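Try this one yourself first.
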């Protein structure tokens, strides 16, 4: 009987709802509210999960994604700004997400590297934010 506690713990862990992060809307995990197309508590929260593991600091691609000021109107390796408020076509981050960066003079891989592409909700969050003028909040 000395293992009964561990057994109960294992059963308890197995009983939760399956987490399907690929299909769930992008939500703020604190509140379960869908993320808004703003930087704070919106795109930043999504980037913190999907991009920041590699882009907190300038080690990869020379770009970090910690603040809005790291991206908006800041030139990428191609000269195109990472984010141009109001224009997907002129936002290099958008091209790296959509895998169209080679068409605009860029190189390297689709982002996020070595993991699933942004899903429909994450992509919509990013495009809505850029087209709304990349507001801070
Ligand atoms: C596993 C690590 C990793 C993840 C996760 C990742 N990146 Fe990258 N990123 C890289 C590397 C390495 C490069 C440089 C090579 C290349 O461009 O493919 C790069 C390059 C870039 C560039 C090009 C910079 C330039 O000026 O040419 C952008 C923009 C970018 N990443 C944005 C993002 C965004 C936005 C996300 C999240 C949605 C993301 N990355 C997720 C590793 C990563």
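Now uncover the answer:
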């Amino acid at each position: 009987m000395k293992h009964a506690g561990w057994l109960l713990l294992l059963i308890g862990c197995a009983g939760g709802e399956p987490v399907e992060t690929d299909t769930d809307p992008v939500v703020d995990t604190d509140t379960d509210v869908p993320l808004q197309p703003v930087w704070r508590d919106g795109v930043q929260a999504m980037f913190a999960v999907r991009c920041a593991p590699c882009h907190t600091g300038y080690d990869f691609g020379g770009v970090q994604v910690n603040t809005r000021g790291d991206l908006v109107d800041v030139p990428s390796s191609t000269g195109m700004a990472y984010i141009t408020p109001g224009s997907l076509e002129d936002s290099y981050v958008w091209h790296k997400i959509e895998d169209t960066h080679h068409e605009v003079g860029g190189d390297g891989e689709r982002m996020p590297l070595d993991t699933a592409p942004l899903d429909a909700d994450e992509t919509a969050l990013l495009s809505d934010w850029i087209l709304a003028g990349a507001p801070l909040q």
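Discussion: Residues 26-131 form one domain. DSSP finds five helices and no strands in the chain.
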